[in-house]
Amino acid sequence: HGFYEAEFIWEGKPASATFNANGLLMRTEEEVPKAKIPGDIIKHAKKLYPDYEIVECAKITTPDKKLMYEVEIVKDKKRRSLIFDINNTYLREEMDEDDDDKDLKKTQQRQ
């Protein structure tokens, strides 16, 4: 019961849509420049992982119009995606499926 992601270019920017196994839209993701992400979210990401480099940022929208931000970070080829709500609250970490770090689950809560 996996998820499926379609990647495409929307209005000149990389974007994606994630669907569940039944074809129901789960979220859309639009790549945005780091400067467009609220500064407190960037600071929070750097505090959580000070040795990681921020390589990509995205705006995530759910079908019910809930807005979140993703900050993708990398260190020594280990890639992590940190998810925040619009109030700078850290929600979760999503691991890329091709990440070599087997000690972390795909989605991991961090306090």
Concise structural overview:
The chain has one helix spanning 39-48, and strands at 3-10, 13-20, 25-32, 53-61, 67-75, 78-85, 90-95, 107-108. By secondary structure, it is mostly beta strands.
Folded structure, characterized:
Helix content is 9%, strand content 52%. The chain has one helix spanning 39-48, and strands at residues 3-10, 13-20, 25-32, 53-61, 67-75, 78-85, 90-95, 107-108. The protein is globular. The termini are far apart.
Strand content: over 45%
Helix share bin: under 10%
Which blocks of ≥5 consecutive residues have pLDDT under 50?
Answer: 98-111
Count of DSSP strands = 8
Q: What is the overall number of helices?
A: 1
Structural class: mainly beta
**CA radius of gyration:** 14 Å
How can the largest sheet be summarized? 8 strands, antiparallel
Mean pLDDT: 85
Strand arrangement within the widest β-sheet reads: 1-2-3-4-5-6-7-8
| Measured distance between first and last alpha carbons | 28 Å
What is the N-to-C succession of helices and strands? EEEHEEEEE
Question: What is the topological layout?
Answer:
Blueprint: E1 3-10, E2 13-20, E3 25-32, H1 39-48, E4 53-61, E5 67-75, E6 78-85, E7 90-95, E8 107-108
Antiparallel strand pairs: 1-2, 2-3, 3-4, 4-5, 5-6, 6-7, 7-8
What characteristics describe this protein?
disordered C terminus, 8 strands, 52% strand, 1 helix
